[in-house]
Amino acid sequence: MIYFLWSLERQTEIDGGGGHFFVLKIVFDSEEEAEQRQDGADTERSPSDEAQGHSLGPFSPPAYSEPAALLSSNRTSPSVDGIPASAAAVPGIGGGGAETRVSLDAIAAQLLRDQYILAALELHTELLEAGRELPRLRDYFSNPGNFERQSGTPPASLGFGTGYIASTQINALKYRAGSISTLDSLDFARYSDDGNRESDERLAECEIPSQERKNYKSSPEIQEPIRPLEKRALNFLVNEYLLKNEYKLTSITFSDENDDQDFELWDDVGLNIPKPPDLLQLYRNCGNSLPLHRETVDVAVSVDPNDLPGDYFTQESVQQTEELEYQISLLNSEKQSLAEQIKKLQRLIQTNYSLLVLTVPLSAFCSALWKAGLICRVIGNRRWRWLVKSCFVCLCRKLSPAFHQALLSFCQMSADSRLGSEVSRIADSEQSVMLMLGRCLPHIVPNVLLAKREELIPLILCTACLHPEPKERDQLLHILFNLIKRPDDEQRQMILTGCVAFAQHVGPTRVEAELLPQCWEQINHKYPERRLLVAEACGALAPYLPKEIRSSLVLSMLQQMLAEDKADMVREAVVKSLGIIMGYIDDPDKYSQGFELMLLSLGDPSERVVSATHQVFIPAFAAWCTELGNLQSQLIPSLLTRIEKLLKSEYGLDEHKLHMYLSALQSLIPSLFAVLLQNAPFTSRAKLQGDVPPIEVTRFPRPASPLQDVATIVGSREQLAVLLQLHDHQLQHEGTTGWDSLLWVVNQFLPQLIDIVGRFNVTSSTCVHEFCRFFWRLCRTFGKIFTNTKVKPQFQEILRLSEENVDASTGNGILTKATVPIYATGVLTCYNQEEDRKLLVGFLEDVMTTLSLSHAPLDSLKASFIELGANPVYHELLLTVLWYGVVHTSALVRCTAARMFELLVKGVNETLVAQRVVPALITLSSDPEISVRISTIPAFGTIMETVTQKELLERVKMQLASFLEDPQYQDQHSLHMEIIKTFGRVGPNAEPRFRDEFVLPHLHKLALCNNQQTVENKRLDIATQLFEAYSALSCCFISEELMVNHFLPGLRCLRTDMEQLSPEHEVILSSMIKECEIKVENKGIGEAQGSISIAASLVGEDAKTKFLSKMGQLTTSGAMLANVFQRKK
């Protein structure tokens, strides 16, 4: 057995000096000797001997008792013929029932009070095995704090019997590894001089109940962690193995990773035992060690006292119990005496460390530590390191302190400067580290490269979080926001990530008090990147701010930046942060402010800001309105009211504002549909059970952002699939009764929209396009069933396409409005199945027929063709509609079809033009009605302007030539007007060969023929159209030959007409003719350039723009008009 004694001896002379010192004595007994000691403890010791105690040697004071006796009294459980002593203490059992028995709780209390921990543990274990449990013992042994010792003072039980052993093993039972960083808590037996650890392990095992020991050894999660000296020893053996087996690179890497250890010297490990065999030998012998030949059996006994005979407990057992109690009382008195001595020694140590160390000879002290293998551990402990340092400093030489100080002054050290002061003052706690960082960081940051300053962000944030001084924290956060002069995207993200981590760590109060002031200071910074950081920080910190600050200060900051900041990227970030704020705000009074912010964002001149408004702000604001319940009652009606006011404006329709409001409504469609689903009669039945049919990919239009995805608004795609299934079933089979949100859409929202559509001018292509997009998204979002049953019937009721409703004199007024193109493009094209296409074809045919027969304007039909023609998918469908008009019996319908070809040709590919368009136009050009033939001329001209196929161009050219050269058309004034107008429109953009060989010669002929016209009105109409055509063609490059043969002669003929009909035009024509003649005369310039530009001399602005602007100034005096074409000097 192993016993530890810690005694203090007074010696008069040790190596020439005296003083106090500690002696650690380790005594090893064999198991047989231990048993003999235990057996003889009761027989050989008399009460007087017990009082005096037995001496263990010259180092033990007389008052010290035999440790073996202590061990015996603690380890031996009194029993009667194998029955635990605890059973004997139970009242009413045995023959001595009349005597007063001490309760088990009293025994346990006495054991704990006298610090007989091991005896108490064994009593606790035996009670547990007997099926009983004392609350006092259970609470004591389940509290790890009862077995922890304060560092810095030796444990009271270290050298006095089993206290140390019991404490060690209690800690082992609780699976707590003992501290090895201080001298106080070292396991001395583990690193003893002889290196014999087996007895220590046997002692530890025998002190632990078998089942507890079994559980402890078999559980890998509760193994004792590796100790530093064990780690160093294993490192040495591993490195030795790597070198012997030629793993040199690995050995070098391993040595680098353990640079605090010298692998050349075993003594550097710190263990005072010989070097063990190498790793291979240890592996081979690990299973060959012979265990102790001891037969052990784990036995659990549980006895019911009622089953025992009445006289089982004899008088002998009572006497034995009394003897044991007497021994306990003696040991308690001995313990008190020892405890007083320990307290005296502790006071001595605590009050006079220097005296203790100074009186210990250096050689003896260090030698003892080295032999015990404890020198490294002593130095590792702060308190004992100071003692060893003092010993080395003070005892090596007998020098005066003044001499030491003067000598050390020659060292090159500087503690006077700020940096020297910081270097000489090493932090010894977390708080001192924070204080040091707070002092040093302001001096470090300016000296770090700008490109690498983001590496300081973690250091700054951690210091700002943990620093105790508010002023220093404010300075550190100021450094954080000013860390980089113009932070890029990645640097801003790092700073924002740090701010969020700071906010999560410190809480809302400190975020408000410390972070927000930094944002406020940067709100007007001259660099946009810094203001952008503020805008993004407001959004990122929104979840961590107090709600009052979110809806007041932060909202005001962002509103100011949105209204005043000039940088687009800053306002874009502001809008996104406002959207985040809307996701957390809960003050209903802020609704009006949010609505104004939405309008302000939508009206921003930057497209980036408007896009961010639709992607982030409007969905977040709509979600808040949904929670407030005013999406349908306030938000959407407010936008519709503003659109109606635009239509009533006396200054005309503001298309920009209409686009702004309508786009906002379009962004609200997903939220509106989500409200319908979440407030439907079937919502309570929406359960995620069984197989749910997946949602078609094309079921919803592509959202502008994830926030506009209906699945995101509802919660998940699976939940949306269930709701859609119930939605469709409700509309098809159960109706809309009780579905208030849907009834509002059908009875209020849609009628108001259709009324607005019928009130603005159809010629506004921008408005038509915006409303078409809105209705298309509305119908695609709400679904096909809703579109067919709720939307289409309302449009059809308004349009009234039946023939009996056609008024031949005035036409059907609604058919001339924007309702036609919006219904055709926005509603009928939502679904592209065969039945939908047939419905669209029939509607367009009916509209074309109705408008033609009623002589109504064709603007609504043209708008429909323009919108549909922009999508190549509908080209075949539109050609089908036009062919219906080509073969129609009415000449009016055929004329309309001919004019619609002009709109369609520009977007159709040349194959369709050759196969479908040109044959239809050729058919119409030979129509019996001259009006139908004339209607084909604009379409032929557009083909000449857009098509490049030579064969196709020749066919069109021949058809136009037949119109000009056929004698039957010589007196067709309308035909000539249409041809001249077409030449002026397509001439500048047509193929140069077609312009030079066909357009210019025929214009010359038409101008010459117009001189012979006797009807003044017709002559003026032709002359005016010729003037427009020549004005457009004058900006083209014309060869000298054409200029002399056709262009100048045509202008002279036209001037002849204008002299009589319009003198103002005559002045302009004279200037044009004079300029052309000058160009012709200047042959050198003409040959150098290859061609002449009539407007080439108009320097300083685009020639065509300036020339056409002068053409419009026909009210100007003749003298000024004459100067238009004069060369600039």
UniProtKB/TrEMBL annotation:
What domain of life?
Eukaryota
According to its UniProt entry, the protein's GO biological process terms are: intracellular cholesterol transport
Q: Which residues form a coiled coil?
A: 321-351
Q: Which GO terms describe its cellular component?
A: recycling endosome; trans-Golgi network
- Give the location in the cell: Golgi apparatus, trans-Golgi network; Recycling endosome
InterPro entries, sorted: ARM-like (IPR011989), ARM-type_fold (IPR016024), LisH (IPR006594), RELCH (IPR040362)
Locations of Basic and acidic residues compositional bias? 35-52
Using the UniProt annotation, give all residue ranges assigned to the region (Disordered): 33-77
Q: Transmembrane residues, as ranges?
A: none
Which keywords does UniProt give here?
Answer: Coiled coil, Endosome, Golgi apparatus, Lipid transport, Repeat, Transport
Protein name, as recorded: LisH domain and HEAT repeat-containing protein KIAA1468
